[in-house]
Specification:
This protein has 2 domains: 126 residues, Diaminopimelate Epimerase, Chain A, domain 1; 122 residues, Diaminopimelate Epimerase, Chain A, domain 1 (Roll), CATH 3.10.310. It contains 6 helices and 18 strands. The protein has an 18-stranded mixed β-sheet that branches. It is globular. The mean pLDDT is 96.
């Protein structure tokens, strides 16, 4: 059984967000997949299996839990399917997941994913949120999975040192902080914290951009934007709004190839 590690939303090794990609020959036990994800100890490991119709079943696990949607590990999976020849280079990657059908296409040297849009609904800051972040919020929204918190400026996003124990008590999958970019190359910047899922800070979060894209699209009057996730590794996500879907595009680099010697 083959397993790979791919750096997503980057064109450089050791940047972006690393994801495990396990290519299954047959269905696997959920407890075993969780153990593999814990062994890989990455923010997410994807498990992909071919279907009889030429499409794929896809699941994602953090070291602690299964998640319902993951952008960077989906991008990594599509990259591996094309790189290994499991999927012909000109064919669309079609994934069946907990979050429905997701697709991937090659576009101008990037991989473009088609994900459901998840616009945040404005809410009052939950008790403990501002204290846990340690910075004031200018706007707070909630999506199906996460909280979106706009800060005063990009420097506030970069300087934030959250109390992860406090964020965990909020009970949401994740908390993203964001601001307009102070770099002309990008429209907005963000960071993403997910201690509930066993990941204190996720390096680059594709699924968070399902909320960031409509949020900043409305504020900036744009349907196409570029986001920079300002983690220590950093990563770039191109977003394009199309109705109730969002296209997430980025590059990927394979950094490890291996096989299981124990199962």
């Amino acid at each position: 059984m083959r397993i790979y590690q791919v750096d997503s939303f980057t064109d450089q090794p050791f940047k972006g967000n690393p994801a495990g990609v396990c290519v299954l020959d047959e269905s696997a036990d959920e407890a075993w997949m969780q153990c593999v994800a814990a062994e890989m100890n990455l923010s997410e490991t994807a498990f992909v299996r071919s279907r009889a119709d030429g499409e794929f079943d896809l699941r994602w696990f953090t070291p602690a839990v299964e998640v319902e949607l993951c952008g960077h590990a989906t991008l990594a999976t599509a990259h591996i399917l094309w790189e290994t020849g499991i999927l012909p280079s000109g064919k669309q990657a079609r994934f069946h997941s907990i979050s429905g059908l997701l697709t991937g296409d090659r576009q101008d040297g990037r991989i473009e994913l088609d994900f459901p849009v998840s616009p945040p609904k404005p809410i009052e800051p939950p008790d403990g949120l501002v204290d846990a972040l340690g910075v004031p919020a200018t706007c707070v929204g909630q999506t199906r999975f996460d909280l979106l918190v706009e800060l005063a400026d990009a420097d506030a996003v970069r300087r934030t040192v959250p109390n992860f124990r406090g964020l965990k008590r909020l009970g949401m999958r994740g908390v993203m902080i964001t601001a307009r970019s102070d770099d002309d190359r990008f429209d907005f910047i963000s960071r993403f914290f997910a201690p509930v899922a066993g990941v204190d800070e996720d390096p680059v979060t594709g699924s968070a951009h399902c909320a960031l894209a409509p949020y900043w699209g409305e504020k900036l009057g744009k349907t196409e934007m570029v986001g920079y996730q300002a983690s220590a590794r950093g990563g770039v996500v191109h977003v394009r709004l199309v109705g109730d879907r969002v296209k997430l595009a980025g590059r990927a680099v394979t950094v490890l190839r291996g096989e299981f010697t124990a199962v």
